[in-house]
Amino acid sequence: MDAARDAVTSAISLLRENGSRMELAHALRFLGELERSAPDSDGGIAAYEESVAILRDQTDRATLAHTLRHLGDAHRHLGHVDAAVTCCEEAYGMYQQHQCGSELDRANAARSAALGKELVSDGNAARQRWRIARDLYERAGVASGVTESVERLAALG
Asked: CB 33: neighbour CB atoms within 10 A?
């Protein structure tokens, strides 16, 4: 893990000097993913946030939405409820508005948004997002996503 983190950090340094902004955003997101999987880390928040800031100035809405979802998930895992909900809702809305990304990406965004809505006790919005996640997971052929969605809907009543 340390070797991978060091390699990505070196690449980021080079990209800051000579690379494209999109390449830098992708490298930062990858660093965020590495950090998120490391125990006792900040979840990659800083790397994700910098990636999101760069992506906001780009035209690739799918990559921005995907990175926002990861940032929201990292916030949720660290217990930052408000930040998690904000990021996941923005990602979910972006996928809905632009109809970008794969069905699996959109399903994952609906799932993350549903989990956020559960955290703030908004059952109606959570149910709506779980239904969308279920349908998208079904179309994407992800049985575990369908099962989780059905179980969460049943628990919400």
From this structure: 17
Token pair of 156, please?
């919400």
In this prediction the pTM is 0.91
Contacts of residue 84, defined as CB under 8 A and 6 or more positions apart, other chains included, come to: 72, 73, 75, 76, 116, 119
Question: Which residue's structure tokens are 């969605």?
Answer: 149
The DSSP result for 27-62, as a single string, is: HHHHHHHHHHHSTTS-TTHHHHHHHHHHHTTSS-HH
pLDDT in tens, the chain (157 residues): 688 889 999 999 999 999 899 999 999 999 999 999 887 788 899 999 999 999 999 999 999 999 999 999 999 999 999 999 999 999 999 999 998 889 999 999 999 999 999 999 999 999 999 999 999 999 999 999 999 999 999 999 8
- Residues 25 and 11 sit within 8 Å (Cβ to Cβ): no
Q: How far apart are CA 30 and CA 51, in angstroms?
A: 9
